[in-house]
């Protein structure tokens, strides 16, 4: 993904450099990178570079500066999620008309089978148990595809539906026990809260996590949800989704 992005940033040609090395990060050396031993992977191009505004949004899911059909806006957010899940960090340095460097820091093992007890490892989201199943209900195809991919990478079994009625039909089959219903709040036809009400007629103890692009206050004031429900704001990152899912499942 990083190499493809670099290529696309150099439509008239340029230079692409991929570098790897062991790196020791001392306190104060790199903002947001915990002190410790890392393997550093850097991808540098001499392309168009990015503005400060663009640089501040590059890890947002679905954000892209490419033409329609040339990019989903998921690549860098997935790179970020993978690295953070591994206990590492990603740093991007860019200047317009000069180029971009992406540096990935992954915790380094000193001996085979031994992971350093480093603060960076603690940043990784908790893994799933193999017997947990999540149903994702989302009418936006891109958002649903991203969510399903993240959850499967985290080790969950996933069922998906594009609307409330489809979700209910899957629940009624009862072929697989559902541990968590992850649903959008505002959808055509049946809203998220209506879906949850009917789903809990089938399984009263069903755990639920809502997702919405609206703020919590706007949703509550609009009467779409009851106070106290579990909600994650869209767009969400790989890491924030991983942590929120575990919080709800373990509550």
From TrEMBL:
Entry EC number(s): 2.7.13.3
Annotated ranges, domain Response regulatory: 133-249
One GO term (biological process): phosphorelay signal transduction system
Keyword Transferase: yes
Histidine kinase domain: residues covered: 1-110
Gene3D superfamilies hit by this protein: 3.40.50.2300, Histidine kinase-like ATPase, C-terminal domain
SUPFAM superfamilies documented for this protein: ATPase domain of HSP90 chaperone/DNA topoisomerase II/histidine kinase (SSF55874), CheY-like (SSF52172)
4-aspartylphosphate: residues carrying this PTM: 184
Reactions this protein catalyses: ATP + protein L-histidine = ADP + protein N-phospho-L-histidine
A Pfam entry, by short name: Response_reg
Keywords: Kinase, Phosphoprotein, Transferase
Entry GO MF terms: protein histidine kinase activity
Domain of life: Bacteria
TM regions (residue ranges): none
Methyltransferase listed as a keyword: no
Name recorded for this polypeptide: histidine kinase
Organism: Sphingomonas bacterium
């Amino acid at each position: 993904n990083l190499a493809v992005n670099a290529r696309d940033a150099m439509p008239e040609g340029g230079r692409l450099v991929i570098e790897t090395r062991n790196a020791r990060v001392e306190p104060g050396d790199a903002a947001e990178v915990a002190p410790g031993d890392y393997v550093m992977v850097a991808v540098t191009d001499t392309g168009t570079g990015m503005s400060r505004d663009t640089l501040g949004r590059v890890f947002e899911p679905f954000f892209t500066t490419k033409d329609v059909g040339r990019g989903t806006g998921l690549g860098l957010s997935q790179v970020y999620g993978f690295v953070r899940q591994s206990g590492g960090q990603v740093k991007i340095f860019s200047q317009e008309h000069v180029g971009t460097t992406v540096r990935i820091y992954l915790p380094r093992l000193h001996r085979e089978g031994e992971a350093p007890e480093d603060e960076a490892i603690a940043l990784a989201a908790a893994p799933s148990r193999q017997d947990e199943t999540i149903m994702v209900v989302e009418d936006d195809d891109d958002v649903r595809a991203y969510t399903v991919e993240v959850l499967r990478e985290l080790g969950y079994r996933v069922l998906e539906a594009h609307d409330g009625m489809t979700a209910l039909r899957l629940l009624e089959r009862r072929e697989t026990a559902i541990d968590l219903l992850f649903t959008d709040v505002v959808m055509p036809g049946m809203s998220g809260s209506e879906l949850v009400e009917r789903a809990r007629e089938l399984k009263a103890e069903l755990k639920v996590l809502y997702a919405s692009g609206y703020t919590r206050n706007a949703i509550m004031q609009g009467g779409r949800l009851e106070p106290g429900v579990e909600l994650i704001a869209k767009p969400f990152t790989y890491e924030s989704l991983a942590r929120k899912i575990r919080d709800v499942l373990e509550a």
